[in-house]
């Protein structure tokens, strides 16, 4: 990968799921003590349990909403359920992890049946407010969701690739 290229641009997360934004918060995502970076590849068995998501900062008076979606559901060639909601946590205090937030939609592990799926975790800054769970998980639009609740633009995001246990091959761009 060329130096200076944003992995969210290269993986087409910008455009498919997010609009470009300026990162102003740092988050650390770990599955079973493995830290996830943009573009990390994982099998389904590695993501069965929810990850630890820590928000780095200095002020516990800041709160964040975390949204985790599959940008390629049910398959990368036909993402008719894009964005599939895997997890929604609100009111996460800065300097702590998502377990201190309010889990609105419980974690459902990604379980790709075909191809390599882009799983995107988006962090948005918020004011504490009541946010309700959508009535379904498929076809959630994080842009519309954020606009509806006036949460604001993303402040951080991480995208990793996930495929079934015996999957092989790569993504075509």
Automatic annotation (TrEMBL):
<dbReference type="InterPro" id="IPR035810">
    <property type="entry name" value="PEBP_euk"/>
</dbReference>
<dbReference type="Pfam" id="PF01161">
    <property type="entry name" value="PBP"/>
</dbReference>
<protein>
    <submittedName>
        <fullName>TSF2 protein</fullName>
    </submittedName>
</protein>
<dbReference type="InterPro" id="IPR036610">
    <property type="entry name" value="PEBP-like_sf"/>
</dbReference>
<dbReference type="InterPro" id="IPR008914">
    <property type="entry name" value="PEBP"/>
</dbReference>
